[in-house]
Amino acid sequence: MCFVIIIEHIFCQDRTGLFSSMTSLRQRKGSKGKDPGPSGFSWWTILCVMTGSTVGISLGLLCCIYVATLHENDLWFSNIKEVEREISFRTECGLYYSYYKQMLKAPSIQQGLYELIHDNTTESKRTINILQRMNIYQEVFLSILYRILPIQTYLEPIYFYIYTVFALQTVYVIALFITSWLLSDSWLAGALSGVWYILNRVDTTRVEFTISLRENWSIPFFALQVAAITCYLRPQLKPIHQRVVLWLVFVSTFCFCLTWQFNQFVLLVQALIIFTLDCLDFLTTEQVVSLYLMQVLSLLLVWLLQFCNSMILGSLVLSFIVSALFIKHFQVSKILQLKSDEHIFKFIKAKFGFGATRDFDASLYLCEEAFGLLPLDTFERLAGTVLLYPYLCTLSVLFILLLLVATFKMRPDVAYNLLHTVFFGLLAFSTMRMKYLWTGHMCPFAAFGVCGKEVWSLYLRVLHCNTKTMMRLIRYSVPIVILAFLYYKFWPRLMEEISELREFYDPDTVELMEWIRLKTPKRAVFAGSMQLLAGIKLCTGRVLTNHPHYEDQALRERTRQVYQIYARQSAEEVHKVLCSVGADYIVLEDSICYERRHSRGCRLRDLLDLANGHIMDGPGENEPDLILATHPRFCEAIKTDMTPYSTLFTRVFKNKTFHVYKLKKLKKKNKAENGP
């Protein structure tokens, strides 16, 4: 119903242009007769709607099939063993997928939910509520859906999961298609937007190799929300249509918030956009309040579903909206005394140079490439698909016009998308991982510049040839020429890409998982790196000491303690720490102990040395207050099998990549545990 209204509004609206005075807008609202209503569709209009809708859906399905094919060809997913399929869910992806698997293995849906709410395997010696801590309702929903649908006989659970994520790419492309269609009044813009999204896959999505990441679930809903907001802000939208489209804004915002823990920071940027538009008098009071209300209601509903998660209630976006309603921001944040997301603020403070930091959590983020600045080669790739040039032209022209807002009145939907691409562009420049919120929106925005009347009319006025005939010629010929060029240049490459066959190959990890599954007790507790432990939980179901979902202060502190296995600490101190978290086994990785991927100062062992006040390994400068450690690096020294390491640890597994040690329980400790 909502999409019908959006498509209908594309053709049943008063085309006011990019700018018009408020007087002329009011005059057009009162005019009669010339603009056909919904019942006044011509056959040509109906044909355009049907053609555009077909093209949009086809491009969405093409994108879905494309990424699914890439995933299959890269791993030979259909031919590898189940354990290899599960290992392919790297780092936190494996953790999230493990809860889907856990729900399917439960005797009943009720029992599965109970085990998630009272989970004692994700963090040893603790019982936590997974539904409160993590955004995994999508895994719960899919597991329930798989149980009740008659598909078990011909579709494996893992395929049902990955195909659902790939299907969301269809939603994503259709949302981008609709956004550009709404902005430009041409479905050719939608076609150009969809093609650009697919061709720039490296910079617009990473879904084919990080399937379970929360952003791959949430960003399609965010794109859908942007499309709905674009429609909501269109001039001349009927009140009944406004209510229906506003409902779509709420549903898409809710789904976005429910599926990603970073929702509050994205919505904060969006709230700033709405605030800016309000200050520039682009939006009515009703529109501002309604959009804020949709954000607040979505967050509060997620807050309830996540068992009153304080991180949501104390989010900056809620504080900002409250402050916009003249309630001071600090009254909210101080009362709640939030610490779950304090590592993010430490990271932001250190990233923008507000003092150096030795904080382990902040440094862990700073040293990851995904949280660095946007690489310059991104622009080379975007320029190669001819996306960057029209994007920059549209952005520069409209931004200059925005500065002249006192003279001209820009359409609210155009102004929103302009500020959206500016704000999220700045976010992408500062943090590479956030570029996927920006690059996807670049496609409809650039397509609007190519196919919209407004930008072209400015150029034609400068050339003194702004006629209807010339406008139509350019609006239809330029996108067709670009599409033809893209087809000629990239179609052979796409065919070559999807015909390239590879195979998953990680025998050391497979060997480790099989050994754990066959040779260790089912309730054994494993300590190690966050990334590896997520895979251990998925493949073997063993209990973990820590995991990659980092939005909890107690977990972050525990992770720092467990990671002392890669620091310069005594065997006794490491053994004591591991026993305190209930570990039975530790898994040491040579790729971490002898890491070369990062430069000095960003290797994990360096971050630990700095946090512990020790001088780092290798040549280079050290801060003057750092001291030389009195103990060798644990992950190296334990391999010597000398006292006291042999007294406290026994090596039980080894291959070229991993070393597994079992903790020996000291007699004194055993007596204390057994009691009198």
TrEMBL record:
The subcellular localization recorded is: Membrane
An annotated GO cellular component of this protein is: nuclear inner membrane
Q: A single GO molecular function, which one?
A: mannosyltransferase activity
- What's the main place this protein lives? membrane
Q: Any idea which UniProt keywords this protein has? A: Glycosyltransferase, Membrane, Transferase, Transmembrane, Transmembrane helix
Question: What residues form the membrane-spanning segments?
Answer: 41-68, 158-183, 217-233, 245-277, 297-327, 386-408, 414-432, 473-491
**Membrane topology reported for the UniProt record:** Multi-pass membrane protein
Where are the annotated coiled coils located? none
The entry's family comment says: Belongs to the dpy-19 family.
Listed name of the protein: Dpy-19 like C-mannosyltransferase 3
- Organism source for this protein? Cyprinus carpio (Common carp)
